[in-house]
Predict the 3D structure of the following.
Amino acid sequence: MRFSTGLRNGLAAGLGFQGLLNHGYVKVFTGAQPANADAAETGTILGIITKASAALTKETRASATLTVTGGSGTLTALTAGTLPLVPDPSSVVWETDTTVTAAKIAAAINRNGMAEASSSGNVITVKPRPGTGAAWNGLALATTGITCTGSNFASGVAPENGLILGSPAAGVISKSADVWSMLGLAIGTAGWFRYYGSDTADTGAIISAAPYYARMDGSCGVGSGDAQLSSLAVTVGSPHTVDLFRFTVPAN
């Protein structure tokens, strides 16, 4: 299994495996998987695994901006509507200038895991967790304690027919009870897969700079491999189901 930079960064921060791949999808290809999950897709695409082989609508994540304009103080609240995005606002104290302070606010948002944030100069861009879709559209991004100008979240489009992971038990997370399946798009033998997050902006191209998207690559097999399919032989229109998908977080 090969994790992209975005998946590793998200796991090291607050989003978690289940959240990073929420409502994602899996592409199945011929040949051997690339050297790493940040690499571009290789081989012939044989199909896209979705919920019950239904047509996929990838997510457009809503976004809002927060511009730091104040010159002193301690953050007392940062909210999207009434939802608190920073549970420990008192940890964010004005430092040096608007650029440094914006970076501190973005880091505090990312620690919480309710949203993802990045900063450029004194402007912070905030997006909700993957899979949130249009749910945050219209929510106002606002702060108290440090003077900022916020916008409303907008442009979110909900994902449809993406894959949902079940609840973890003893460090193991599996596919949900939904049918995970695909219809063949070409003739070939399944060799590897790439599990993508829901974000429509990830085109499958090489990733060498931010934004870093969550991806996971693995091998395909029948009775073995990282993704176990009912058959590796694919033809146009042929049905294929995922019998098992499971990821284990080791205890040591």
